[in-house]
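Many introductory courses stop at the sequence. We go one step further.
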Amino acid sequence: MSMAVRSARFVVSGWRGPLLLLFLVLVVTLVILHRVIQSPLLNQYEILHKHLERGGSSSSSSSISSTRSILLWNDFFGDPRWKLSWDTLGPQELREELHCPVYQCEVTNQHDFLPAVELYDAVVFHAAQMFPLLEQVPARRSPKQMYIFALMEPPGETKHRLDDEQGFYNLTMTYRLDSDVVWPYGQIVDIETGAVVAPNSNPSWRKPPVVAYNDTEIYDLWAGKSKMAAWFVSHCKTLSQREVLAERLQTYFQVDIYGKCGTLSCARGDPYCDEMLDTDYLFYLAFENSLCDDYVTEKLFDALRRNVIPVVFGGADYSRILPPHSYIDANRFETVSDLALYLDFVGGDATEYASYFWWRRHYRLGNSSPFCDLCARLHEPGFRHKSQSYNDIQSWWFNSCHLESHLKW
């Protein structure tokens, strides 16, 4: 081998060590730089953003677009569909039929819709009925599941012992405004904006007009109304003692009571029953059977659809549910005599009577499915990692009621 070749090899061999060292230094520098860039100290917003994009999970399979499954464990007063249109509703039905803003859910009453009950994201229990006798509660439960306490009836209608179910429920779905999912009998919607105003813990209402409310239809109907008050009722003896209030009012004016608690009858669903509220009666008695926070029933919202003023009696703060000056609250009066005198005044003055309908120019009645809100709740970031449970569901539920009203008999 020539001297020139040996010299060339020596030169290459001499540079190989420094080049390799330089390469290693470059690689280590890049690795350190990458880790610094990805460090929470510098990149916490990007890390959070990517996490939320994945739906709060470290796995891309749990993205916001993935479908959550909801099982209806028992019937809703004999209706296994809970007033829904099918035994199983998928995302398309939630979007098109229920108009849910977040609709990537499946709602079913079929226990075998998924291979095992612990695979459902949420199980809804109707607590106003006994659970199924053969399988009262699921035999197995995943720690990732949400168990939902669902009720539209007041605590007095709960049909099983809640002190046996402490720590059982993760979420509540009731008419109470402090429920995790609020399930009211009706809503008040702003006509101009389309926004749901109430029920709400702190609604922002428009103010009733100072000038007289001019509605020809109401004035014309008022002129033909010849009866004071009507009441449709079938639950005769109640915790609220509403039947006593109605009896006391009858000493001041006639109260026509329809149903098994009175002497008059009107078939359920007969359109004449609703029409006569428009044409014959000045007031409708929307008295609740229990004095419980936020509890108002469909009878109140049905009355608002008619041309009659509802007289309310219950445990709710009605200012959180209805527009001001759209109803007469019996609990605002000291005695039944005071209430009767005020009803006589309003009923005898056309202008004052018509003023109670001002809200119709600004609001309309609405409704929505609680399963829309439940679906949205199940899509909240990190919902699978929540450990919330109601350790004393009985106290939370029962303590919302009281036995005595402000009104003195």
